Amino acid sequence: MRKRFICLLSGGIDSIVAAWFASRYGDIVFVHIDNEHFLPRGTRERVLELAKVLSALLKKKLKLYFVKNGQNIKTIIANAPRKSTCVLCRRTMYRIAEEIARREHAYGIVTGESLAQVASQTLYNLVAESYDISVPILRPLFGLDKEEIVVYAKQIGTYNISCTREKGCYGSRGRFVCCFATPKYPETHASVEFVKSVEKELNIDIKGTVDSAEVLIVGE
After folding, report:
1. Whole-number Cα distances in Å, 141 to 74, 120, 138
2. Can you tell me whether residue 166 is helix, strand or coil?
3. Which of 14, 179, 184, 218 is most buried as measured by Cβ atoms within 10 A of its Cβ?
4. Which of 114, 113, 115, 118 is nearest to 171 (CA)?
5. pLDDT value for 2
6. Which class for 78: exposed (0-12), middle (13-18), buried (19 or more C-beta within 10 A)?
7. Do the Cβ atoms of 9 and 111 come closer than 8 Å?
8. Comparing C-alpha atoms, which of 109, 63, 106, 72 is closest to residue 216?
9. Distance from the Cα of residue 63 to its chain's centroid
10. What is the pTM of this model?
11. CATH number of the domain at 3-218, please?
């Protein structure tokens, strides 16, 4: 029996490549965490287009969850140190993916993260963000640099879609920052203790967030 993986899909270069790697070893279910007004317009359409490309490549229909996360980010910004926004947002993403993994009977959560790809993706942060997640978090691209990932993106036909630069994004060579909630100086040395203490205060309703998700079948 083939394993099932929950693949976080952001619309960027990395996550769709990670999903492609995962698809070689099991069935995949996409989850897009929709940060709503903290993301530029066009993100949803780009995510759909990427999912369609992989669906065609794999010659199968794929499930895609759109999970609204804007209110959760507002809660984080209002109640936690500003520099910790990225850590706590990513932590929330993992918890959402964990809940969907339970419902989908999935073996693991697949992300497009690689070490130090962006300022907040440090080993300290990855450990703190992953704390107590009951489903394995798999990072197929962990040891690759951006140039290596781009080669794979071009190979599977997703590079040009992922590189569509929306209004409000900044950066170059595919390293765009397209989240308006990103602090100027993000936390790079988060601790498990910090995440545990702040998370209790935030009291984010993960099950309620997932209950309100929109679920599509791509490739019909």
Report:
1. 30, 16, 9
2. coil
3. 14
4. 118
5. 79
6. exposed
7. no
8. 63
9. 16
10. 0.91
11. 3.40.50.620
Please report the DSSP string for 81-141 in residue order.
Answer: -GGGHHHHHHHHHHHHHHHHHHHHT-SEEE----TTSSTT--HHHHHHHHTT-SS-EE-TT
| Residue 205 backbone class (left: φ over 0; alpha: ψ -120 to 50; beta: rest) | beta
Write down the domain spans for the chain: 3-218
Burial of 37 (0-12, 13-18, 19+ CB in 10 A): exposed
User: How far is Cα 114 from Cα 141, in angstroms, rounded to an integer?
Assistant: 6
pLDDT at 172 over 60: no
Question: Which residue in the block uniquely carries the two structure tokens 């995949």?
Answer: 28
Q: What is the mean pLDDT of the chain?
A: 90
Residue 157 contacts residue 53 (beta carbons within 8 Å):
yes
Percent of the chain with pLDDT over 90: 75
Q: Give the three-state DSSP class for 23.
A: helix
pLDDT value at position 170?
44
What single-letter amino acid sits at 176? F
Per-residue pLDDT at 164? 72
Round to whole Å and give the CA distance between 136 and 5. Answer: 10
CB 96 within 8 A of CB 209: yes
Provide φ and ψ at 64, rounded to 5°: -135, 120
CA distance 189 to 113: 17
Say how far apart CA 145 and CA 151 lie, in whole Å. Answer: 10
Q: What is the arithmetic mean of pLDDT over 156-164? A: 91
